[in-house]
Design brief:
By secondary structure, the chain is of the alpha+beta class. The protein is built from 7 helices and 17 strands.
Length: 390
């Protein structure tokens, strides 16, 4: 949502004040090092009976995991059926229903936002290439609002209209031929975050208008973070105080780990599989997001290109940025913001991103970059990032 025009919020008959959350999935870039007590050999804990957990795969094979402390000694595991619902707590839901409700949010996210599923709401929206307003769901409006917020925060480095670029570079990878200048220029002409308007109609229903012909939206750089944040909010609204929700490289945290200590999150070494670059220790409601070239380079011929694209140049960002990890605390859905910022900061590069992050409340970032002289990885961070390593 990258043109020279800024975002436009409007409402027919009345002014609309848009409330958006303020604050890429690399499957193994973030590793949760905490272990469910008594189940995975954690020497610092002894009781697993108060932990509910579920893991599995979502749309496009993305791994997901939910884990939270329960109010009683009831332990829930994936594949455990017919759990009694009599154990009602403050939120009015049993442990099983809390787990199912949070998991359902993650599953339903794919049915709404997967652009490759022709029956998804996003695919249907993209197939309608009108510039007239199109009615959308509350979920679509929320994600579009969060995307606009991150675009504003990063002066357009995050752009949810980037799908035409993704398409031509995907085709280039399949053909082995780089896209030509005309293809890139044509794609850029169908983009521009400032050309997307989120509004309400006369009945108060959400609509999205794309003010350039044939614009397509792609929320892959923000929706996974949004979904884990929504699942965490559901759990907290139903009385859960300590929890973890993870979808690929997006993690939502609350409270402490089941061991009673801060959650320990390993940031994978970008060049040494199986090794961690560093370990974060985090307590309280916090979002962690990593974007990088860990798993998804675009291969054209024998050359690897980054899978993240600069919405200004229309080309992949430089591969000397090996990984970007963003930690955000505060705001109604910090995970949506962390996810979007991880993509945007990778586009901006360390100098601009670190300067920008320093002006954002509750935002810290770590870059792992390739040293131009030695080729070895090194890191650059915002001044406050190290507090998560103690």
């Amino acid at each position: 949502m990258n043109g020279n025009n800024g975002p436009r919020y409007s409402r027919r008959k009345a002014l609309l004040v848009l409330t958006a959350s303020v604050a890429s999935v690399i499957v193994a870039a973030l590793l949760v090092l905490d272990m469910i007590p008594g189940l995975r050999g954690d020497p610092g804990a002894s009781d697993s009976s108060n932990v509910a957990s579920r893991s599995g795969f979502l749309y496009a094979g993305i791994p997901a995991r939910i884990e939270f402390m329960t109010d009683t000694g009831e332990a829930i595991r994936m594949n455990l059926k017919n759990v009694p619902d009599g154990d009602l707590r403050r939120g009015g839901l049993s442990t099983a229903k809390r787990l199912d409700g949070a998991w359902d949010i993650l599953v339903r996210t794919g049915s709404v936002f997967n652009p490759f599923d022709p029956s998804s709401e996003l695919a249907i929206l993209n197939s309608n290439q009108t510039t007239s307003p199109v009615q959308v769901s509350d979920w679509m409006a929320q994600v579009a609002g969060s995307a606009t917020t991150v675009s504003q925060m990063t002066s357009g480095a995050f752009d949810a209209t980037v799908r035409p670029l993704k398409t031509i570079w995907k085709n280039a990878a399949q053909s082995g031929v780089l896209p030509d200048e005309a293809d890139i220029t044509h794609a850029l002409g169908r983009m521009g975050w400032g050309y997307v308007t989120l509004l309400r109609d006369g009945e108060g229903k959400w609509e999205i208008a794309r003010n350039r012909p044939a614009m397509e939206l792609d929320f892959g750089g923000i929706v996974k973070g949004w979904s884990v944040g929504m699942a965490m909010t559901f759990l907290q609204d139903n009385g859960v105080k300590s929890a973890l929700v993870q979808v690929g490289g997006e993690i939502a945290l609350a409270g402490n780990s089941p061991s009673g200590r801060p959650w320990r999150i390993g940031i994978r070494h970008p060049l040494e599989p199986g090794s961690n670059w560093t370990i974060l220790n985090i307590s309280g409601r916090t979002a962690v997001s990593t974007s990088g070239n860990y798993e998804q380079p675009v291969m054209i011929g024998n050359t690897a290109y980054y899978h993240i694209f600069d919405p200004i140049t229309g080309r992949p960002i430089p591969t000397d940025v090996l990984g970007t990890t963003v930690v955000v605390s505060g705001g109604p859905n910090p995970n949506a913001i962390a996810d979007g910022l991880a993509t945007a900061f990778a586009v901006m590069g360390p100098d601009r991103a670190i300067e920008a992050a320093a002006k954002m409340e509750g935002v810290e970032v770590l870059f792992i970059v390739r040293d131009p002289a030695s080729g070895a990885p090194k890191e650059r961070t915002t001044p406050g990032f190290d507090r998560f390593r103690h």
